[in-house]
Design a protein that fits this description.
heterodimer; A: mainly alpha; MetI-like fold; 2 domains; B: alpha/beta; 6-stranded mixed sheet; 7 helices; about 40% helix
Chain lengths: ~260, ~240
Amino acid sequence: MMSRKNIIDVLFIPLFLLLVIYPLVALLGRLTGGGISETFQDIYFWQSFKNTLIAALAAALLSLLLALGFGYYHLFNRNTIIYKIANTMNDLPIAIPHTVAGLALLLAFGRNAFGFIGPTGLAFTLVAVVMAMFFVSYPLAARTISSGVDQIDPEIVAVARSLGDIPYKAYLRVVIPALSEALFSGFVLSYARSLSEFAAVAMFGGNVPGTTQVLASYVFSKVEEGELGMAITASAVCIAISALLVATLSFMNYRRVKDA
Amino acid sequence: MLEFKNIKKCYGDQQVLCGVSMKMESGIKVIIGINGSGKTTLLKIIAGIISGDNGKVFINSRDVTVLPPEERNLGYVPQHPALFNHLTAWDNIIYASRNGRGFAETGKLMVEMLGLQDVLNKKPLELSGGYRSRVSLARALTSDPEVMLLDEPLSDIDASTKEKLWPEFRRTLKNNGIPSIYVTHDLHEAELIGDTFAAMVKGQIVNVASAAEAFEAIKDSYLNETVLSGIAALNVN
């Protein structure tokens, strides 16, 4: 007997295949031996690969550090103005165009004294790349940590405080150790987001081969130069790293559900 | 000595505590009330975990009303043991010593009293419910508190383990000689644990002579709750 399909089946499956899966297949299907060999022999590819991994790592760690600070405010100081501002601002970097984020960073920390703190010399350096990646990935880490904090039994904090812990000690001693899953998820999400960032990085960090170029900007440059084979290979590498991160996260979620 | 005067607490339009007052010098005072009668809210206000809308709390004549929990020197044992899962049972027990409260010697004494010798190096998730409750009690007592607050500390435990733990908990609390408030909705538990009794009815505390009298005082509310939950269960089914 044929199963009856509803409107969701009819619309969702073809649209998902067409708009999500097909573009990836179209890209990976154009991988060629020549493109792969040429890319892997390109020193700038390896430099951008290294820059991507290092800068994304630094940005993800910095995101986690600040997200833990946000988590503290989320737990203990939810009625303060600073928390309310931080909570609202958390979503802004996601909502604004990332070229705007890059421009904001450039004006704040650029070579000219536009910002309040004057010229810093940070623009178009690897530090700028890290800052741009951080700017767009921190909100994800903050949201992950704050939802992790929400899942902690409030009695744990109450007991720690009854045993003499002032709030920040309770946070360091009993809350953060209970946040291990949220920390890992926050790290993976921030890392993946940093890895995929192009616009903010290009605006503030630049796209200098061998210096500040990352994989996302390498792909852009290769397309502009008409080196499609190399752009496709670098894109496939990006997809592979991202897929690995997403698979790690899915595996963790699967284990958590199974353990529960 | 623990004293609280005229404690009030509202959640929205609902007044949970309507000017509750009590004074106790020593022994184990059991407060009996149905679920939702405000027992836990009262303990949390005394412990400083939440603040009351009105009223004062004194511990050994010291006004602690506006002090945070860490400055009240109370032992708090919540409904669920709330152990720190990343620490061993022993590290849980002597946790307060990190803040200069209590001594390892007291911890060792508690371990002996509650029969925890074999589980000291285990993490909470490796322990049975009964052991977790014992560790939770030992942890609170090792912090050398001036008053103990126990909020249905054995509610997670199966009936046969409870039967074993009730006398153990009473003996340990009595040996330490710390004034204790023990909250429960179980008549049998109240009888086995308490020295004195009170009932929590309509946001007020009423001192009574026995657990049975306390149960008599809350009977109407209890019956209402039972009937209502029975109706709810029927509706669900």
